[in-house]
Design a protein that fits this description.
Strand order of the largest sheet: 1-2
Order of helices and strands: HHHHHHEHHHHEHHHH
Number of helices: 14
Distance between the termini: 12 Å
Helix content: 55-70%
Structural class: mainly alpha
Strand content: under 5%
Oligomer: single chain
């Protein structure tokens, strides 16, 4: 287990350095654009994993939270003239408020009823955006949204370098916060409710409060990502509520692996590049979603827990093989010399590694 954690720490360190170096080596603005979009999707997918994977809530309103963050930021920045940096935070707060509203009826529901309520909420938000065209622009959306500004730097003439680093910083910050959440007592409690609700409630875990917290936290990071998304593209369009967007992000969560945080982020990088690459092929713009769906089915067929489970499973098999080799031919385990006195037993602790 210690070797696995050390290996994971080294891998994360290498990925962090690689993320900082990529825009220096990659000067093509389109490739930088793909990285920025994949970082945004990575935040949305990892946040969705908090409710879907860790809390076990079949929340299908997540893309609606993303849309709420987009429109709240766009309205705050353009109509109210608020600084775009602050407007992004307003997007996160608005998304959390929307999550709190939708959480009220679903915290005590289960299964298909949660799906129905959250799906209905998504349609409600979409119809609200379309119907209030004097504010939201209706089907035309909101255009010419103010861009980010910083003294001594022009975000519009740096070949997307500034936006890359802002998106990367948001991704790292969201990942760290989500990992701290799932490794905390709060994370353990929502996993306990997911695995055995009756037992968790009998141990005094407040199910309604914990599910409310999970929804609000996941919506905040999603709303901030939506705020950055609209500031970057400078367009708020109702197309974000399309089923294709929801299916693409859901594919990232399932292919990457639920209850992992890192898996959806890696899947977001891979699927964004694949999806955009296929979109550039003639007459294949819509067919790319079919291929992504097929890939999701194949991965779930062979790896039900997603690609994030492949490496830990391989290391676990290697550990078991090494453990079997450490036993003698009579079937008794060979005790290391430093444990032969029998005074020390391994402590029992809760596993916070997932």
């Amino acid at each position: 287990m210690a070797s696995l954690r050390n290996g994971k720490a080294w891998l994360l360190g290498i990925l962090l350095v690689a993320g900082l170096v990529v825009p220096i080596l990659v000067e093509d603005t389109y490739l930088r654009h793909l990285f920025i979009i994949s970082f945004v999707y990575g935040i949305v997918a990892a946040s969705w994993d908090l409710t879907l994977g860790y809390a076990g809530i079949f929340n299908f309103a997540h893309i609606a939270f993303f849309g709420v963050g987009i429109y709240a930021t766009a309205l705050a920045a353009k109509l109210l003239g608020i600084d775009p940096w602050i407007a992004m935070l307003i997007g996160g707060i608005a998304a959390s408020a929307a999550a709190a509203i939708v959480a009220l009826p679903i915290v005590r529901l289960q299964g298909v009823y949660v799906v129905l309520v959250t799906f209905a909420f998504s349609q409600l938000v979409f119809q609200l955006v379309i119907s209030q065209s004097q504010v939201t622009g209706g089907t035309n959306g909101i255009v010419r949204i103010p861009t980010l500004s910083m003294p001594g730097h022009n975000f519009l003439r740096d070949y997307k370098l500034g936006y890359y680093y802002v998106a990367f910083a948001l991704l790292v910050a969201a990942t760290v916060c989500l990992r701290l959440l799932v490794r905390s007592d709060f994370g353990l409690s929502i996993k306990a409710l997911r695995d055995n609700e009756d037992y968790g409630v009998s141990r005094g875990i407040p199910i309604a409060r914990q599910r409310l917290k999970a929804l609000v936290a996941s919506a905040f990071f999603t709303g901030v990502a939506g705020g950055f998304y609209v500031i970057y593209l400078r367009v708020a369009s109702p197309e974000i509520f399309d089923f294709s967007t929801a299916s693409l992000v859901l594919s990232m969560v399932l292919v990457g692996g639920t209850s992992s945080i890192y898996g959806p982020i890696v899947a977001a990088l891979v699927l964004t590049f694949i999806s955009e690459g296929l979109a550039n092929i003639n007459n294949f713009a819509e067919g790319r979603f079919m291929l992504v769906s097929v890939a999701m089915i194949v991965v779930l067929l062979f790896f039900p827990k997603g690609l994030a489970s492949v490496l830990p499973a391989a290391l676990a098999r290697r550990h078991e093989k090494r453990d079997r080799e450490s036993r003698n031919w009579k079937g008794t385990r060979v005790v290391p010399n430093d444990q032969k006195n029998g005074t020390a037993l391994p402590p029992i602790s809760l596993d916070r590694s997932t």
